[in-house]
Amino acid sequence: MSSATAPILITGAAQRVGLHCARRLLEDGHPVIATYRTERPGVQVLRDLGAVVLFADFSSETGILAFIEQLKQHTDQLRAIVHNASAWMTEAPGNESAAFNAMFGVHMLAPYLINLHGAELLLRSTPADIVHISDDVTRKGSARHIAYCATKAGLESLTLSFAAKFAPAIKVNGIAPALLLFNPEDDAAYRAKALAKSALGIEPGSEVIYQSLRYLLDNPYVTGTTLTVNGGRHVK
Ligand SMILES: NC(=O)C1=CN([C@@H]2O[C@H](COP(=O)(O)OP(=O)(O)OC[C@H]3O[C@@H](n4cnc5c(N)ncnc54)[C@H](OP(=O)(O)O)[C@@H]3O)[C@@H](O)[C@H]2O)C=CC1
Ligand SMILES: Nc1nc2c(c(=O)[nH]1)N=C([C@H](O)[C@@H](O)CO)CN2
């Protein structure tokens, strides 16, 4: 299978950024294997567009390994793996360990195991890429999302380690966004405060992540790099 027809795996593609990027990859002619955890309208949209859509719950090792086995039944080659799936959880009083373990699973254990077990599929494609979606908040930490930030920082560490391990056959990079899309429950005060944190002061939407992903897929001389896509929060 040529790299032009080898599928791109993107996780957490039922909605928002993952769904947008999966649709844009399909538009650009890439076959797509997309994972979902909850059956949302976006899942059927991807099926209708010809994507292979697989259930995956990355909150446990069992769920991750079950997905990897399912993945290998659907393809023997991959052009790229995009680790987008994520849970944005605050500290849960009385349930701290469960929240931490859930975010460790989806932000760190799943990328770690999928990369290790999926490398053989990527090695049959040239070029080949792994992209981790982290979060600009790792620059300074977060008092309100401690476990989220810690596990995203761990994901950025995986970018460096896997870039060293898999070079030169596989490029491994990250994208660290700040605010991309508000959630429906975000009120006007929260929205104004979030927008004021960046120099550019906008809610950019998902396309800025696809533009960053496109750059990483197309550039043969970038690995071990995490792109900051934060509207200039670090200069505000
Ligand atoms: N939106 C933003 O403003 C920002 C986003 N980011 C990062 O960008 C990426 C995309 O963001 P966004 O689209 O908002 O993400 P979402 O919050 O919409 O999450 C994406 C998907 O991840 C899935 N997911 C969550 N936990 C698990 C799990 N345990 N196993 C499998 N799938 C799981 C969700 O599935 P389900 O449908 O079942 O809930 C969801 O559909 C994420 O990595 C996020 O951390 C970073 C900074 C800002
Ligand atoms: N998995 C998610 N991670 C993050 C989200 C989200 O909706 N899902 N949202 C944010 C915020 O937009 C934050 O960047 C600004 O308030 C961060 N991560």
UniProtKB/TrEMBL annotation:
Pfam family, one: adh_short
The EC number(s) this enzyme carries: 1.5.1.3, 1.5.1.50
Domain of life: Bacteria
GO molecular function, one term: dihydrofolate reductase activity
GO term, biological process aspect, one: one-carbon metabolic process
Reactions performed catalytically: (6S)-5,6,7,8-tetrahydrofolate + NADP(+) = 7,8-dihydrofolate + NADPH + H(+); 7,8-dihydromonapterin + NADPH + H(+) = 5,6,7,8-tetrahydromonapterin + NADP(+)
Keyword annotations: NADP, One-carbon metabolism, Oxidoreductase
Entries under PROSITE patterns matching the protein: ADH_SHORT
Family in the record: Belongs to the short-chain dehydrogenases/reductases (SDR) family. FolM subfamily.
Main function: Catalyzes the reduction of dihydromonapterin to tetrahydromonapterin. Also has lower activity with dihydrofolate.
Name this protein carries in UniProt: Dihydromonapterin reductase
Organism of this sequence: Pseudomonas thivervalensis
